[in-house]
Specification:
The mean pLDDT is 91. The chain is of the alpha/beta class. The protein contains ten helices and 14 strands. It has two domains: 216 residues, 3-Layer(aba) Sandwich (Rossmann fold), CATH 3.40.50.300; 73 residues, Alpha-Beta Plaits (2-Layer Sandwich), CATH 3.30.70. Strand 7, helix 6 and strand 8 form a beta-alpha-beta unit. Helix 3 packs across helix 4. The structure holds adenosine-5'-triphosphate. InterPro entries: AAA+_ATPase (IPR003593), ABC_transporter-like_ATP-bd (IPR003439), ABC_transporter-like_CS (IPR017871), DrrA1/2-like_C (IPR025302), P-loop_NTPase (IPR027417). Belongs to the ABC transporter superfamily. It comes from Dietzia natronolimnaea. Keywords: ATP-binding, Nucleotide-binding, Transport.
Length: 293
């Protein structure tokens, strides 16, 4: 498990990362979200040792992370790390060797991974000759080529088409199923909602939410949708009911207490039929807006 504690980074007057603490558990996918400039990249750079923290610690497997530990981490930096003018396979083999793989092992893994991403016939091409999405796929291969114990990926899904997203998701799930903790940043909340076991939301350099997606949903405001047989305007007069919206027979309600659901149901039945009375659980986008506003 990776743990950050009190991690802080200043750039002159700018407090880019402010007392950030969270865990990236084993075998789980942790989504790292936040608006532009929230501090995600700076945090990831401190995890990887590319930037020194102004304060705080990064702990790996219960002790302060070392240079040797970081060699076992797979990293996909925001600025991407590969050389545009070098052949793809050569670079990947080189990186694999830097991370302790044998030349044959690195070549075999790189070829298999490139095949998987549909790039098996491009191995001798220069990186710059690939489309941006395909370059991105190669960058991910570079992050995993050493057989990482932890993956830190800065916006790995940006610019990928849906097929490439699915290949990447499958690949990352293979790592989490082997126990590898994965931390990735993204602005694509639908994807984060689909993928993540665990979520950390950053705003203005601080952690404003941290937990499983289900936890955060439960903490959000759960509304109820009533679809009555006829106009539902009468709900306005019920005690304990705050009407968010009424449109003909459909009403969106904020109830004071769970028991108020029974009252709404009884009243609706007494006035005719009830087509639906259901909880409306907030989406991740709604929770995100709430915690970052
Ligand atoms: N090298 C640097 N020198 C000065 N300020 C920096 C530096 N790197 C980052 N910052 C500032 O730190 C803050 C956090 O930036 P960071 O890149 O970590 O955010 P981010 O959440 O990754 O944003 P984005 O989603 O736009 O990539 C910003 O105000 C940024 O301008």
């Amino acid at each position: 498990m990776l743990e950050l504690d009190g991690l802080t980074r200043r750039f002159g007057e700018t407090l880019a990362v402010d007392d950030v603490g969270f865990e990236v558990p084993r075998g789980a996918m942790t989504g790292f979200v936040g608006g532009n400039g929230a501090g995600k990249t700076t945090t990831m750079r401190m995890i990887m040792g590319v930037l020194q923290p102004s304060a705080g610690t990064v702990t790996w497997k219960g002790r302060e992370v070392t240079v040797a530990d970081r060699r076992t981490f797979g990293y996909m930096p925001e600025e991407r790390g590969l050389y545009p003018k070098q052949p793809i396979l050569d670079q990947l083999v080189y990186l694999g060797r830097l991370q302790g793989r044998s030349p044959e092992g690195a070549r075999r893994s790189a070829t298999e991974l490139l095949d998987r991403f549909g790039l098996g016939d491009r191995t001798a091409d220069k990186l710059e000759s690939l489309s941006l999405g395909n370059q991105q796929r190669v960058q991910v291969v570079a992050a995993v080529i050493g057989g990482p114990e932890l993956l830190v990926l800065d916006e790995p899904f940006s610019g990928l088409d849906p097929v490439a997203v699915d290949s990447m998701v499958d690949l990352l799930r293979e790592y989490t199923s082997q126990g590898v903790p994965v931390l990735f940043s993204s602005h694509q909340l639908d994807l984060v909602e689909r993928l993540c076991d665990h979520l950390v939301v950053l705003a203005g350099g601080r952690v404003v939410a941290n937990g499983t997606v289900d936890d955060l949903r439960r903490r959000g405001r759960v509304l109820h949708r009533l679809v009555a047989g006829t106009d539902a305007g009468w709900v306005r007069s019920l005690p304990g009911v705050h009407v968010v919206d009424v449109d003909g027979p459909t009403a969106l309600l904020d109830l004071d207490r769970p028991e108020v659901t029974d009252l709404v149901l009884r009243e609706a039945m007494a006035r005719g039929s009830v087509r639906e009375l259901a909880e409306v659980v907030p989406t991740l986008s709604e929770i995100y807006r709430e915690v970052t506003s």
